[in-house]
Predict the 3D structure of the following.
Amino acid sequence: MMPPVDTALSDEEILGTPVTMGALALANRLVIAPHTVNFGFTDGSPDDDYIAYITRRAPGFGLTWVPIAAPDPLGRAEPEQPWLWDDRFIPGLARLADALRAAGTEPGMQINHAGRQTSPKLIGGETPVAPSPQPPRSIYTTVPRELTTTEIAGLVEAYAATARRAVTAGYRALNLHFAHSYLVHQFLSPDSNFRTDAYGGSLQNRMRFAVEIVEAIRAEVGSDVALDVKLNGSDFVPGGIELDEAIAVSTALLARGADGVSISGGVYGSSPFNLLLPFDEKAFLPLAASIRAATGGLVTAVGKIRTPADAAAAVREGACDLVGVGRAVIADPDWALKALGRLRSSVRPCLGTLDGCSERLRRFEPATCQVMPEVGRELRHRPTGQPRRIAVIGAGPAGLEAAVYAAELGDTVLLIEETAQTGGMLRLAAQTPGGAPFGDLADFYVDELARLGVDVRLGTRAGRAVLSSFAPDHVIVATGARPDVPDIEGIVSAPLAADEDVLSGESRPEGRVVVLGSGRRALATALFCAARATTVTVVDHDCLRVAHDASALMRRAYKQQLAAAGIEIVPGPVRRLTETEVVLDDRQLAADLVVLAVRLRSLREARDVVPDGIGTTIIGDAKKPRSIMDAIAEAREAVDGTHGP
Ligand SMILES: Cc1cc2nc3c(=O)[nH]c(=O)nc-3n(C[C@H](O)[C@H](O)[C@H](O)COP(=O)(O)O)c2cc1C
Ligand code: SF4
């Protein structure tokens, strides 16, 4: 543990304080948390795409963890990740270490064996191994094979040999992934370890494998290498690891050779918190604080540290010595430079809803990011053609991204918005429970528009006069969509409101509210109404899966939130509406207000006011109602398109 923080220091000074991890001096407290992206590691060695991805993000971070090097072929967890079970992988990972060091960060290597948290498809058709033959609670279903004690001893040696290879490749910091349902965590947790030998039963036995790995690595690499261990402060599953055991494990590992612990929490499928913390919860910080206080060890905190202010507060409040940043740096590659005040612009905020990152991994696809479409495309050359004059109509997420990106490319940009505010649906989504990050994204765009000198005309209807006087080379129409009125008998007599009118305050959700729709927009609106109405019922009019357009983790989170708020979800379709009722096949729901969130209709009338001869591109919901991720990606494509090939 480092000495107490001088609370008079600024956020930048706190985050910029040098840290010593074991024998290793780190420039500051900022750490890129290990995160797999499932690209850039064909056959286990990094290619230029991964090196470009991670070195683009590394500047400013004292330490950058490269995720999950597999110490054994059966330990693979992703189609594309580092492999390090053989010396032949050393040169590729050495090239990555050199590139990270050249980017100004200390390269660190995380080692992980997936155990049962994998599929035969990822491990050459073999059966996954685990402490006990219990199937995982995740997308994987294969019942694993129980490891023999001889195999356990072999894996301890494999970990030590892998650590030696990482050090040979130039990594002076190692992180052992003992959290999140992977092999060593499976041994630690009584929820997955049912062994009756020396590796199961008492905590002493369950942590034996972890202790042996730490001791073997320390003996192999000596005292010059910094050794950190990622642990769960709580699994948030009945029968899993709780804080008292996490403290005991941390204490033991710190005594046997670890220089620090990174404290996370949750496992796949845990509740109320899983390892990615849906919504804006900082639930792992109290766990980190308790472990830091109890052990006196050097602690890295992770979990929803989204802003530099969050990071500094975590240190100031004594939760940690170092701050691990995961999704926030996927979303904003300049996060650390901004946190340290070396780059003066706002942080592009992570929305936390996982659409681009972990949802893609869940489907074995390469990660991207819903607010940063350049993830994985860092080597792509931005267009360099002549600066253009670009008019953007509509200041929702698509229009804002188009305006900001065009201005970044050097274009002269006019942004026209009919309402008095920028943000569109982002501002409304910000009103819903857990929706604050959407408002942060809108605020980010406002800051960027000002920094980049975009001419923003609010309260202005796009017309020929305003466009002609600007004389654009190209017009981008990003006017969004409106909730469509479904064709239901009696709809004209029903007490109707569109979801966006409820969220904007134009329509008050009082009494008995029935929300039609089952997408995340409908569910977020229902949660918003629950705090104001007497009862809220969601009717899945289109008979789609509830939260069908959300990532799997968010779907679970929504269901939990809806249940906690007492919101009933009723299958549709709606057969008839009256002034007071929503009529289904088998029941009638009394309704003082029926909120429409079924489907959207694109708005693109603005296209008609574009003077003849000027190229026009329609993007985002105005083209076809979809997600924010589509809107932002399409905005960039449209701007690139205006610059030609
Ligand atoms: C796309 C993605 C991949 C991840 N991969 C890893 C990993 O390989 N190793 C690991 O220890 N944690 C992994 N994590 C978890 C992060 O390290 C971190 O614990 C978690 O995301 C919470 O931090 P954040 O809120 O800053 O993202 C991953 C998280 C994400 C979003
Ligand atoms: S995809 Fe979403 S949750 Fe993942 S890093 Fe990007 S903004 Fe954050």
Notes: The chain has a mean pLDDT of 95. DSSP finds 21 helices and 27 strands in the chain.
